[in-house]
Structures are given as C-alpha cells and as structure tokens.
Amino acid sequence: MNETVIRVESAAAYDVVIGTALAARLPDLLGDKVQRVAFLYAAELAEQAEPILEALLKHYDVLGLGLPSGEDQKTVAVAADCWEALGEKGFTRSDAVVTFGGGATTDLGGFVAAGWLRGVRVVHIPTTVLATVDAAVGGKTGVNTAAGKNLVGAFHEPAGVLCDLALLGTLPREDLVAGLGEVVKCGFIADPEILRLIEATDEITAASPVLPELIERAIRVKAEVVAADLKETGGSDGHPGRETLNYGHTLAHALEKHSGFSIRHGDAVAVGCVYAAELARLAGVLSDEVAARHAPAFAKVGLPTTVKELGLEAGFDDLIGAMRVDKKARGSVLRFLVLHDLAVPRILTGPTEEQLREAYAAVSV
C-alpha cells in the first residue's frame, strides 16, 4: 500500500508514517548524529523484530534489550535495568532508543528515553492496534506502581512513529479487538465518521478494507489533540484539551488495577466509556440517544460493555479508591471526561455518589 504521513504539529513536530515495510525509514527519523541505538522489544516478538534489528545494525552500534511481557515490563525496576545497560554501553545524549512492541513497550521505552540524560531521541514501532492509535503517538510515557496505572511518567515526544500495518495481521483476534476500543473512543470524542464506518461493517478483521482508514482516522484524532495541548494544560472554549483522550479511562484504569492488570486495556476502556456515557446521562448533560449508542458500537467490534463480561468480581466500593487517584482528580474531587454530544467533550466535576453508583450499576450486570 502507499504510505500515509501524518504530521504531529507540536512543539517538537514529528511524522507518523503508516504503511508496510518501513524499516528503511529509521535512519531519517533518528538523524545523522546517532551512533548507538538501544532497541527495546517485547521478548516474545523477537522473531518479528529481526528485520528491524537487521536494518539498525547496518547503520548503528545496537544494544538489544528484550523486555518482559505486557504490563510486567512497566515497572521502575525494568526501567532502571535499561538505564544501567545504557550506562554500561556509554550512551550519550546524541544516541537514541527504538521501541518495538505494544502499548506497554511504547510506554516503558519512551520513559527510558525520557529519563536517560534527561531525554534522548526515541522512535516507536508499534505492533498492536492499541499502540498504533494510542500509546505510540503523543509523547506520554510511564510505568505502573502499586497505587495505580501510569502514575509515574513524563511527556517525551518521539522523533517519529512507524506504523507497519503488516504487523497487525499477526495479532491474535482478542488483541486486535482490544485495540479497537481506542478507535471507537475516538469516534465518540472527535470523529463520528469512525462510528458510521464501524456500524456499516459486518465484522472488522485484520484483513478488512476498512481497518486502515479506521486506524488513520484514530491517529489523526490523537495527533490533532496532542498538537493543541501536549501537557494537558487545557483547551479553549470549554474543550478539555488532551484530557479528552482519557474518555472512559477513569473507570478503565481502576478495573485494570483491580484485575492485577490481567484484563486488556481496550476491553476496560470500552466498559469505561459506556460508564462515562451513563454518568453523563444521569447528570443531565448527554441525551439518551447518544448514551444508548455507546454499548452497541463497542459490542459491534467484539468488545465487552459490562464488568461481568470482563470476568471480574468488582463492586463499586472496590473501585472508588483507585478512581480517586486518577490523574484527572483534583484533591478529593472526582472529574470525569464526558460528552455533551457526539464530538463535544467536556469535564464533569464532582458528580454525586448516587450518580456514580447508579452508573456503575448499569455496567456491572
């Protein structure tokens, strides 16, 4: 397929390249000053990573660092091990990091790059739908702690992102579906055409002709939001800015933490968005029609829409503590990203406990 390039016009502008067989693009994105590259990859993807490693070895002194699976890699201990390895190899500020993997690898690798010498170049090569449309774009990096998900991190924009769509063809069905959670979310917060495409398609698979357009549209949503508000300082005219991207995430992160990070992020986001829609409906700011559109849209791509479907035993009281340490909270006041209409995101501050519980009851069956 032809390449599509989406320019993220932030303070440190960069390109997101969508296509296939993109390894030859790496030297241009890394720049001519780089001598050493730390190649951070999910260990289970070693075979798929081989072409990238070979391309890097033609130009650079490469340090390969295999990482644990999934969220197990997103710890301060793993980041510290990476930093020690960079130090032993003499990495300087002009050297770089390349990540290859899903959202956890992108988050961890970006955090390693942000922390080493207070910031070195990083290029992301996402291998999942979730990482492609979300984690790889926007410069958010982080690790998890016992208190919750992504509570330690930094803003560190990449030098570029290479989205090789051929990699998505190797994904297990459940991982492809989970990644679509963030795509559907983008349809609700900014681009309703995504919802129309999903609702008009019988089933979305890795081979679906509509998948590249859905991915491109979701990336454009994120690129536009982060370019306008990189560090979540807020938007204009009531728009929440980058916080918009957290639609559904307050409950989602609490559910993930409660599960010991055993459930997929996209699955949790789907349930979290249905919850946020119901909360907005109960608060009187969202119509019944738009609220009711949520569950069918997520279910259409195969995502769960209730806590029961996630396979969790979790009451409201099991989750409220984690929601109170959500990044959007201010002091003891809970804040939720909600919709006032399709593509009209706003912040709902201090919903009542009755509203919170009633909305949870609607998604816990």
Automatic annotation (TrEMBL):
Catalytic activity: 7-phospho-2-dehydro-3-deoxy-D-arabino-heptonate = 3-dehydroquinate + phosphate
Main location: cytoplasm
Cofactor note: Binds 1 divalent metal cation per subunit. Can use either Co(2+) or Zn(2+).
Example of a GO cellular component annotation carried by this entry: cytoplasm
Domain of life: Bacteria
Pathway connected to this protein: Metabolic intermediate biosynthesis; chorismate biosynthesis; chorismate from D-erythrose 4-phosphate and phosphoenolpyruvate: step 2/7
Co-factor(s): Co(2+); Zn(2+); NAD(+)
A molecular function (GO) term: metal ion binding
EC main group: lyase
Function comment: Catalyzes the conversion of 3-deoxy-D-arabino-heptulosonate 7-phosphate (DAHP) to dehydroquinate (DHQ).
Family annotation (NCBIfam families): aroB (TIGR01357)
Protein name: 3-dehydroquinate synthase
Organism name: Nocardioides albertanoniae
